[in-house]
C-alpha cells in the first residue's frame, strides 16, 4: 500500500543499523585516508574520483548507502535516481546548491553539510581580497613582473593609481551567518564601518558585534563602498547581483564574492568593470567552474582578481571537514535517518523511515511547509531586474515596504 503512495521512497531498512558492511563512496575525490579509520569497523569505503554520475561505477550506483562529495560534482533528480540504495549524502563543505535536496528528500535520501567548515579560512580569504582591492597589491606585483620601473613619486602615483585608504570606508555584507560575522569582526579591526543585510536573523546580533543592520538590500547597496557576499545560493537569489542591482551600488564601489558563483551575473559585472561603475572585483567562486580567464564574459574585464574556489582551504580545515563528514556517516549507520543526523539540510522534504501508517500525516505536513514562503523577497535578485523606475522610487521612500515584505 505504501509503495502506491510513495513509489520513490526507499524501504524502511534505515530505521535501525544498516546491513553489515554497507558501502560508502567518495564521489568526486580519491583520497580516503582520513575517512577510512573512522568508518573501517562499520563500512567499506571506496572512491570514484568522478565529475559526473556517468563516471561512477555501477557497483556504487547499485549498492552504496552513503556518499560523500565536494563541490565539483552535481546531483540533479535524474542523477539521484540512478542510485538504487543511497540513504545519505554528506556535502564536505557548507554549500549544497550542487545537490537537489528536495528530490533527495522525495527519494528518502538525507543530505547533510558541514556548516562550520572553514569559517575562519573563508573569512581570512575574503579580507585578503578586500585588502587587495583597496591596496592593489596584485596589480603592483604584476607591474614589477612585467618590468615596470617604479622609482619616482610620479611613477608610484601612476602604478599605484586607485589605491585607497580603508579607515572610515563602509563594508556591506549580504548575509550575516557564520562567515559574514567572522568577516565583520576582522573588518572592524582594519577600520571599516560594517553594515549588513540579512532578513532571516533575529534583531540584536548587530549590537553584540558593534555593527549596523539595514533592512533592505537597496539600502545596503546604496551605503556600501565595498559589498561582500555571504549568503547561500538557491533558485530565488540566482544573479542577486545583476545589472539592475549594480546600478543601485555607489559609483566606483568594490565587489567581493566568496560565497557562490551563481549569485553574480558575470556578464553584468564585466560590463560594470569596463564602464568603471564598479572600481574592482574579487571572485573566489564563479558561475562556471573550474574557472578559466580564456572563456566567459570576464576574460577581458579590468580590475578583476579571481581565485579558483579556494577561499575555504587550509590543511587544518580540510582535515576537520573530512573528519566531520565521516562522523556524520557513522551516525547514519548506527542510528536513525534523519533523527540521528546533526546537520540534515532537507528534513522539510524528507519522508522518514517511520512506520508507514504515519507517512500520510508526514506528507500533509510537508505540503503545508512547502506552501509557506521560504525565501525573503529582498534576496531575490531576479525580482529587481523586473521592477520599473516608479517601483524603485517607491522602495526608496518606503512606499513598497508592505508589498515587498508580505
From TrEMBL:
Q: Which PROSITE patterns match?
A: D_2_HYDROXYACID_DH_3
Name the Pfam families for this protein.
2-Hacid_dh, 2-Hacid_dh_C
Grouped into one coarse class, the protein's main location is: nucleus
**Where does the record say this protein resides?**
Nucleus; Synapse
The chain positions of domain D-isomer specific 2-hydroxyacid dehydrogenase NAD-binding read 129-311
D-isomer specific 2-hydroxyacid dehydrogenase catalytic domain spans which residues? 32-346
Q: Which GO terms describe its biological process?
A: cell differentiation; regulation of transcription by RNA polymerase II
Q: Which residues form the signal peptide?
A: none
The UniProt entry's coiled-coil ranges are none
Question: What keywords is this UniProt entry annotated with?
Answer: Differentiation, Methylation, NAD, Nucleus, Oxidoreductase, Phosphoprotein, Repressor, Synapse, Transcription, Transcription regulation
Q: Which CDD domains match?
A: CtBP_dh
A Gene Ontology molecular function term of the record: DNA-binding transcription factor binding
Q: Which GO terms describe its cellular component?
A: nucleus; synapse
Q: InterPro entries per the record?
A: CtBP, CTBP_dehydrogenase, D-isomer_2_OHA_DH_cat_dom, D-isomer_DH_CS, D-isomer_DH_NAD-bd, NAD(P)-bd_dom_sf
The entry assigns this protein to a family as follows: Belongs to the D-isomer specific 2-hydroxyacid dehydrogenase family.
Protein known as = C-terminal-binding protein 2
Q: Which organism is it from?
A: Champsocephalus esox
Amino acid at each position: 500500500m505504501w509503495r502506491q503512495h510513495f513509489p520513490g521512497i526507499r524501504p524502511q531498512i534505515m530505521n535501525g543499523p544498516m546491513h553489515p558492511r554497507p558501502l560508502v563512496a567518495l564521489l568526486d575525490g580519491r583520497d580516503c585516508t582520513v575517512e577510512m579509520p573512522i568508518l573501517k569497523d562499520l563500512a567499506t569505503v571506496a572512491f570514484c574520483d568522478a565529475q559526473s554520475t556517468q563516471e561512477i561505477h555501477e557497483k556504487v550506483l547499485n549498492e552504496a548507502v552513503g556518499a560523500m562529495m565536494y563541490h565539483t560534482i552535481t546531483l540533479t533528480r535524474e542523477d539521484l535516481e540512478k542510485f538504487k540504495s543511497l540513504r545519505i549524502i554528506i556535502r564536505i563543505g557548507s554549500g549544497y546548491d550542487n545537490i537537489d535536496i528536495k528530490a533527495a528528500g522525495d527519494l528518502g535520501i538525507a543530505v547533510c553539510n558541514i556548516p562550520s567548515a572553514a569559517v575562519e579560512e573563508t573569512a581570512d580569504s575574503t579580507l585578503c581580497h578586500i585588502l587587495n582591492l583597496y591596496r592593489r597589491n596584485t596589480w603592483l606585483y604584476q607591474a614589477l613582473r612585467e618590468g615596470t620601473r617604479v622609482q619616482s613619486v610620479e611613477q608610484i602615483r601612476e602604478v599605484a593609481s586607485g589605491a585607497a585608504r580603508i579607515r572610515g570606508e563602509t563594508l556591506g555584507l549580504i548575509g550575516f551567518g557564520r562567515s559574514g560575522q567572522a568577516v565583520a569582526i576582522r573588518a572592524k579591526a582594519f577600520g571599516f564601518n560594517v553594515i549588513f543585510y540579512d532578513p532571516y536573523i533575529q534583531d540584536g546580533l548587530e549590537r553584540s558585534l558593534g555593527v549596523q543592520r539595514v533592512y533592505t538590500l537597496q539600502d545596503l547597496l546604496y551605503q556600501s563602498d565595498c559589498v561582500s557576499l555571504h549568503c547561500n545560493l538557491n533558485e530565488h537569489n540566482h544573479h542577486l547581483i545583476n545589472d539592475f542591482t549594480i546600478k543601485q551600488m555607489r559609483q566606483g564601489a568594490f565587489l567581493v564574492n566568496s560565497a557562490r558563483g551563481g549569485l553574480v551575473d558575470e556578464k553584468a559585472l564585466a560590463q560594470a568593470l569596463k564602464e568603471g561603475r564598479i572600481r574592482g572585483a574579487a571572485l573566489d567562486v564563479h558561475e562556471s567552474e573550474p574557472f578559466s580567464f580564456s572563456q566567459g564574459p570576464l576574460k577581458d574585464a579590468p580590475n578583476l582578481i579571481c581565485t579558483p574556489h579556494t577561499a575555504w582551504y587550509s590543511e587544518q580545515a580540510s582535515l576537520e571537514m573530512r573528519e566531520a563528514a565521516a562522523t556524520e556517516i557513522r551516525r547514519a549507520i548506527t542510528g536513525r535517518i534523519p533523527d540521528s543526523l546533526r546537520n540534515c539540510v532537507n528534513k522539510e522534504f524528507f519522508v522518514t523511515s517511520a512506520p508507514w501508517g504515519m507517512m500520510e500525516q508526514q506528507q500533509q505536513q510537508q505540503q503545508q511547509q512547502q506552501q509557506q514562503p521560504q525565501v525573503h523577497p529582498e534576496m531575490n535578485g531576479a525580482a529587481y531586474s523586473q521592477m520599473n523606475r516608479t517601483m524603485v522610487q517607491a522602495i526608496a521612500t518606503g512606499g513598497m515596504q508592505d508589498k515587498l515584505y508580505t
